[in-house]
Request: fold
Amino acid sequence: MPDLSINFCGVRSPNPFWLASGPPTNTAYQVMRAFDAGWGGAVWKTIGEPIVNTASRYGSIDLKNERMMGLNNIELISDRPIEVNLREISEVKKRFPNHTVIASLMVESRRETWHEIVRRTEDSGADMLELNFGCPHGMSERGMGAAVGQVPEYTTMITHWVKEVARTPVIVKLTPNVTDVAHMAAAARAGGADAISLVNTFNSLVGVDLDSYAPRPAVAGLGSHGGYCGPAVKPIALHMVSAVAKHPKVQIPISGIGGIANWRDAVEFMLLGATSVQVCTAAMHYGFRIVRDMIDGLENYLEEKGMNSAMDLVGKSVPRIEDWGNLDLNYKIVAKIDEGKCIGCNLCYIACEDGAHQCIRVEERPRGDLRHGVDLKHVPHILEDECVGCNLCALVCPVPGCITMAQVDTGRSPMSWKQLQEARGKSPQCSAEQLLAGARRTARSND
Amino acid sequence: MFKDPAPRLSPEQLEKNFADINPPLTPAQALEEASRCLFCHDAPCMKACPTEIDVPQFIRQILTGNMRGSARTILSANILGHSCARVCPTSVLCEGACVLNAEGKKPVEIGKLQRYAVDPVIAGGAQLFRPAVANGYKVALIGGGPASLSCAVELRKRGYETVIFDANPLAGGLNTYGIAAYKMRLADVQKEIAMVRAMGVEIRSNTSVGRDVTIAQLEREFDAIFLGIGLGATDDLHIPGEELEGCRDAISFIEETKSRDFADVQIAKRIAVIGGGNTAIDVVTAARRLGAAEVYMVYRRGPAEMSAFEYEYELARKDMVLFWWQAMPVRIVDDGHGRVAALECVRTERAAADARGRASFAAVPGTEFRLNVGMVVKALGQKRKTDFLQQIARLELKNGCIIVDAASMRTSNPKYFAGGDCVNGGGEVVDAVAHGKKASAGIHQALEVEKGRRAHAGSQH
Reply:
């Protein structure tokens, strides 16, 4: 049986599945239910000066009849007194000493205030601290959350304050609402962060009611931008996690967050550098029980892959994330349609014709019906010489395995853009410095 | 009336028995079903629809909440989209062509979604189309069934004045009088016809051409005439006893179930229905639902040869109809008071194939048997209205059906166009609608060409 436990900054967790700071980790009751269900850890709903919430807090988008592909919230941090939260953390740790309890913190940007909350929290028995520099709504208007995470100097400074007194590992939770999240991770690292967690939610406005003209969610007819999460954000989060994992000035453990709903999502985040993963929206949608299949699925996966430990996954795919300029321009694939599997929907045809490179042909369907024995199935065919190997047809095809992308031997040895430019005697890349130099030259010549 | 009448069921029980067999989708069901549509390009469902409804488009419009647009997509291609949603044999048309079938999945329930899209428009009486400015031409349409209704609406969209002459009290033809009550009620059809009238189509009901108005009059007053007269009563059995009280034809029987209260339709306790088509199924299921204890379906051939659709056969089986395959009627027995007492039949056996390649079945002497029934319903093919059609000059017929040019639906008499059952010998509502559409284009083409010629001739003077 593979070992699912992880070592995160020296803290052992029964498995990499943690609940992210949010509504599911608001109370000891919830966190204990979650641990009973199988979650390995929980990041407590952010503790700080209690706030007052609005009614009407969430909005979501559906995809056809699939509910909540993306969830938006304007809820703030904990509305319960600090001492109540800390007392409950102690209770949970007493009942679940081997589970990981992380206290998420957010207070005003004063050194003494941070020192005080860190000391009090550590006294409660929390295993780690997570600094919420990510909340993009409400709290940021008060100079906290994303207001900190969007300024690298603040991030470094406050992390440093915390590290001055912290005895437990400090995780800095980043906002994705920045130009380069890895830069912010480096800033946190510079302040002494022991780990990074990302991503917090994305600035979002989930929709507008076409009849009342009010945004969703609306509070008495008005709305405010919120934070977006759920399955819809997963690809963006994956990229951000990988960018942080690759950044040479970070190189500390990562807790991955963003649209994780099952073991597959979790494995992807781990392969791209996350040691643990945090889940919120899926638990809000389906409850804590989803962790059972996450545990089971991960176990089976590790066993199938012959791995002994979940830790073996961490960062395995990171070396495979490369600059575009290092990709092989001579690698060629073309689409193949399995005529036996094709159901004749022609979606590949119209996608290629209107949205790609006009490499698929199909005859117009005849008119007629089954009563007259008319065969209405028409299989498109790929013009392989024209096919650029973009995958679009395979992506739109509704039948699993019907369109595959097959490698074609071009007879040419691998050649990347960088190599090509070097062979041409040109610079393969334009650095930020060169870009600025070019801008300066242009400005001068315009004078 | 009958030797042994069926006991009367309560009105509540009758309503329950004839309740909609395809209840409408709820919004949640419709959304889920619509989500299954792949939005195929050059979609086969559209190609398989005789009226070429843009199915992927109307389903997408349901998904986006554009309900008015969805209904317009349907009704612009098929003004009787409301009826067709309920009565089309979708399994051999759009749904049979759905690509999901090829993957072993259930096809998208296009018929139900169509109903979901159209029902609110019909119920709310929204007017989605407007007639064009009058172009000065007048077209008469004989018969008030689907073919004429469709043709008239399409002509109104082009500015023609249209008058439908219908012998029945209510327009709609078989849509009104011939569809099993559990599929569509007469009132539903009348709402649909209200939409046709709102397009400015004049319908003269209770007006029989040849009796109330002459063919010559129509030819004088109208620029073109569309024949949508359908077919007549069912064929006779040509056996002794056919004239007895309690022996009747299927069409008028179904008509009775549609135009009266169910409780007022008289039936016998035991009934035999002769035939193997969809009309025979309508009769046996109606008879069972009205309370007949035993209903026999007597068919000369076997189940494989039956022309009824599979799902229709299934309906009859669920209604516990008793099937006498390979049996043909020989004689209807008199109870001594001029009423049906029994049906005498003989078993048949497979013989050489007939001219159409269909296996023929011949009586086997000595295998006679008797069904003690008080009512016999003839549900064979329908008679052609040749007596009427022969009054029209130069109108060529084949097997009693009007010969038309397939593209324009023009008959051999250039003033006349035709469509529906009187052309194809008995088809679906959707076929009649498609004929009407084609004929409207044919009429327009003919009159426009004529107008062009006249204008040309005028300019030369």
